[in-house]
Amino acid sequence: MGDRIENSPYRFKMHTNETEIFLCQTNKLSSDDFKLLTKRIDEMYQVNLILDNLPAIRYTRKEGFMLRWTGYPIGVKIKDGYYVFNHLKFKVLVHKYEETNVARVMGTGDAVEGFPSVGNKGSDVPGYMVVGFEVVPCSVVHNGDLVKNLKMYEKYPSPIKCEPTTVSMPIKEGEPIVFTYEVTFEESDIKWPSRWDAYLKMEGAKVHWFSILNSLMVITFLAGIVLVIFLRTVRRDLTRYEELDKEAQAMVNEELSGWKLVVGDVFRAPSNPALLCIMVGDGVQILGMAIVTILFAALGFMSPASRGTLITGMLFSYMILGIAAGYVAVRLWRTIGFGDHKGWVSVAWKAACFFPGIAFFILTILNFLLWGSRSTGAIPFSLFVILLLLWFCISVPLTLVGGYFGAKAPHIEYPVRTNQIPREIPAQKYPSWLLVLGAGTLPFGTLFIELFFIMSSIWMGRVYYVFGFLFIVLVLLVVVCAEVSLVLTYMHLCVEDWKWWWKSFFASGSVAIYIFLYSINYLIFDLKSLSGPVSATLYLGYSLFMVLTIMFATGTVCTQKMAH
């Protein structure tokens, strides 16, 4: 994630309130220092502090609502002037305990290994646990003459008034900046297992419920269409058709129209069948990873107290689900080939390398840009080697194992025979791909509200932990994708277009196009502080990687549904 934790100069003593503490005085700001500091303020740089694994939280009030932020800005620009936050007012919430077994008091695995199991026997001094960490940044003018002989952590000679609503310390070239702080400890009823609730408290619940209600309306509308198609049209016609003998069928065929005319071509192999099987297999792996990760996160198994568990869980589940990718890809390959085993090893091997290869290519290019920018977000070379070993030593063998089971499993039998000569597709009034691209708007409509919160979490540093809502949205998205595919495929067959395989994949896979357009919109209107071509390239590169992943996951839902 690019996070590098360093020790700060701020010093606290447990349950000891301190005020007007002098921290340091900078040298006189040079021209380069002044330009860099004002540039960082324009770019909305944040300072993130951590105390006992808890990020510093800042409360602001806007239009009657209390907003929570992690960290604080280094400064602010008002009109043409720049002001720096050089005084910090810390508040540490602590919970007193008398229990000698600290691990039992905490009741969680969060940093348990850092505590002894037995307290100080015979001591009357109570123990305290940090259960909250708040910061209020202030801009205060200090007298430079008063701090000339002060040493770090000594008391500032005059009172300091911290008013968060006003700023008074301007940044000037050739002038030093004095930094001070104060800290107060406050006993709280919050217990150790509940100390993350302030960070994970759900905001905008009504918006999330509106997103789900919006998705349910789309699903109900599509379900009605599917019900009409299958109950009133397809089922009735199939029943009548199966009751006729061959001579009667031949007579009826002359009067048939629509999808009934392509019954002998509907299961004809698509163009590039191996590529389709590979993409569907990789899509199953990605979709399975998403479901497992979000479900475990929603159940609370991936605590934010343990940094990196979410990404680690994603990688682990992705590798294990290589078995599913190989199985689905090979079984679909055999189904398209009418049970032929030939070439299954090649399909399984390509399924193991296709999507990871694309991901590795994109991330390597972006990593070179990060290396060139000397960013801490660059993946170290040693980690690159580890990821490659995980790929080729775990993911690839598991995918081949899944392919082996897929080759042994019985393939799906088609209910009708395929004609030797393909039927000519009549000329269409409108390009069929136009309908496919338009179909992506329905899946996008189910997730675009939740997408805003996810983008804000990734790029704006906001906490996102409403995985329960996200899991519901994911389930609704899968249902919408399946319904869109059914309706769209039926529409194509009604105009005697039997080439449905790829169109069913991209019917809901085209939602990726709209997500990418939304990403560009987010870059232009919400990430105005993003500076330089390198930052924009990184953003667009990561967005491209994200939409490709979504295309694989949503496209495979449709193809699997239609194949069955």
From TrEMBL:
Which Gene Ontology BP terms does the record give? protein localization to membrane
Keyword Methyltransferase in record = no
Task: State the membrane topology.
Answer: Multi-pass membrane protein
**Which Pfam families does the entry link to?**
EMP70
Q: Which domain of life is it from?
A: Eukaryota
Instruction: From the Swiss-Prot or TrEMBL record, state where the protein is found.
Output: Endosome membrane; Golgi apparatus membrane
Q: What is its main location?
A: membrane
**What residue intervals traverse the membrane?**
209-231, 274-298, 310-330, 351-371, 383-407, 433-459, 465-488, 500-524, 536-558
Keywords of the record: Endosome, Golgi apparatus, Membrane, Signal, Transmembrane, Transmembrane helix
Q: Provide the Gene Ontology terms for cellular component.
A: endosome membrane; Golgi membrane
Give the record's family classification.
Belongs to the nonaspanin (TM9SF) (TC 9.A.2) family.
Name of this protein: Transmembrane 9 superfamily member
The species this protein belongs to is Gossypium mustelinum (Cotton)
